[in-house]
Amino acid sequence: MNQASNVNEATIREPLGIIDTDVHQSPKRKQDLLPYLPKVWHEQYLTYGSGLANVFPTPIGVSRKDATPEGGGPAGSDPHFMLKHHVEHYGIDYAILTGGSEASFALHPDLDYASAVIRAYNDHTVENWLTVDPRFKGSIAVNVSDPEEAVKEIERLGDHPDMVQIIVCSGVRAPYGQRFYHPIYEAAERYGLPIAFHPGTEGKMYPPTPVGYPTRYMEWHNIIPLTFMAHVNSLVCEGVFEKFPGLKFVGIEGGVAWLPHLMWRMDKNYKALRSQTPWLKRLPSEYIKEHIRLTTQPIEEPERPGEFLQILQMIDAEKTIMYSSDYPHWDFDNPKVVLPPMPRELKARILAGTAAELYGLPLKKTGKAEVNS
Amino acid sequence: MNQASNVNEATIREPLGIIDTDVHQSPKRKQDLLPYLPKVWHEQYLTYGSGLANVFPTPIGVSRKDATPEGGGPAGSDPHFMLKHHVEHYGIDYAILTGGSEASFALHPDLDYASAVIRAYNDHTVENWLTVDPRFKGSIAVNVSDPEEAVKEIERLGDHPDMVQIIVCSGVRAPYGQRFYHPIYEAAERYGLPIAFHPGTEGKMYPPTPVGYPTRYMEWHNIIPLTFMAHVNSLVCEGVFEKFPGLKFVGIEGGVAWLPHLMWRMDKNYKALRSQTPWLKRLPSEYIKEHIRLTTQPIEEPERPGEFLQILQMIDAEKTIMYSSDYPHWDFDNPKVVLPPMPRELKARILAGTAAELYGLPLKKTGKAEVNS
Questions:
Q1: What domains are there in chain B, each with its CATH number?
Q2: Which of A215, A255, A270 faces B261 most closely, judged by CB atoms?
Q3: pTM, entire model
Q4: Which residues are in the Amidohydrolase-related domain (chains A, B) (predicted)?
């Protein structure tokens, strides 16, 4: 740099805003949910929970050891500790709370039990998290296996000013394009709420791959994105975005770099086979770029970081990709260092710009000197 | 160009060799298999075939209309017509015959029936195709659901000079890394034969996605690569390439551009979770690049062709990717025009170099003027 003013601009700039689109909060104890849950379900909930088995436990635990609150309880269960340990530590403008295991109750055979637990989780979030700090924004969990009840839950909470999206689990009974789910989409569009899906239930309803069960957690985790590809494919081909043109979907924690391949394969097949989907008016990739958002964590890290930037350019990342940390889980991504070198404008869009638009959240400048951005 | 000699060199060069790694041959009629099939299975074979239902028929037929032989019979059933219509028309050095539906018999509950039909197909190929022209090279189909019989079939035909690989279907009972299959891999390594898997049976054993069934052929076809990712993931994580260091796998007709994502996700998870796979000594991506080959058809065609070239560079395509046409099927890729602009050396590797090494096939220069290469 030749001029002092330029040096100054380059080294002390406004920090970029940060919206963390995947932060996991939970009650401190199962008992904390009981005030929100009809008494008839208490014993089942306390004793059996979701009823889902876990044959692929992580060998290193689910959460960061340092995220355990000072006052005790599991990681992610204390809003004040989370504010200090995560939100304020990284200067995060908004933390989109995506919950714990509640959405997974949608796989329970008893729809009434599942919907009751999911409602209780939502009430617990509203009363114990959204009241604590305006930087916390909530996701309305719904029982996606019972669209009628899901619509009622959206109507019950959809006007809450701090509820910014609907959340469901990604491992479910049928691909998300299918008509069974459309009443939920009508309600989501009516309330202007995106629908996010998050992994965890893969393999609990059907085998998690088209060829059966993998052997252990690492293999299971490696192929979580298969579920995401199946949903994106279905959402587009079934014409969901022609039927609900205002609807957006968010794929959380399912990877990013598979999107070019899926878009290209879908576009190519559409040209030859579109007689099967006469309701589509544009290329599949056009629907994807307009209606699908993916979050970054766990971000792909090629040996040559420039290759990930090439992938981002293939998928119009400035409008499709949003930063997420997955706090407080083990594979957390630090917003200050996780993104590879890229133009500042793109970085600003990924760290906050796209999420601010999607969720209708105003970004304020903080005036602090920028570090590592 | 300034010099006439340069113009000459640039426009009239030796043509590149071409090895087509996916060409489908079949008997003309089901009856043609009967001489090779024990009589006890004749009625079942003629009446019920593989016994597999097809709820996702292609709306435009399976084969190119112009590939129907002049003498009648289905496309791909006449070796002399195929030589004229495909092999000689494009100047193909070798056509790797991958068969029809025989590998799919591995999903039949009766292992004896399946193995008998598969043996009959192999014998039909040996007698009716490999004898016709040295440019035809065969794949030994095996009943992958019965490793003991599969090994016997490899031992029966593995020394045939024109059999260059083993072929199985991709939609099967379990991911290909699992120990159930290892006796087959021991035999394949012993005979120096790669193992190829080819789609078609996806969704016939389990749902073809982790969230159930898609709705129609286009959606089903769009997500065939999910099966391939599941197999590559399993093969690496289960340590197949430490146990069988000479073994190579070929993923036919399952796409290419998903590989960077899978490699990066596997490498990242390996760093955190490798306590689960202590037998691995290198990064997953290193095993993939050394032991997995993918074929091009149906090639991905982004709006900006340079993006596909970027993908090829991410996966060391000069040693991992091989040209295939899928002749005579509807989504055939023409070797003269299908590859996007790329360095001539890379093109030569994809069109023939890597396949020549893998299958041990000598390439001769033909001396014809090059067209479109």
A1: 21-359 (3.20.20.140)
A2: A255
A3: 0.94
A4: 19-361
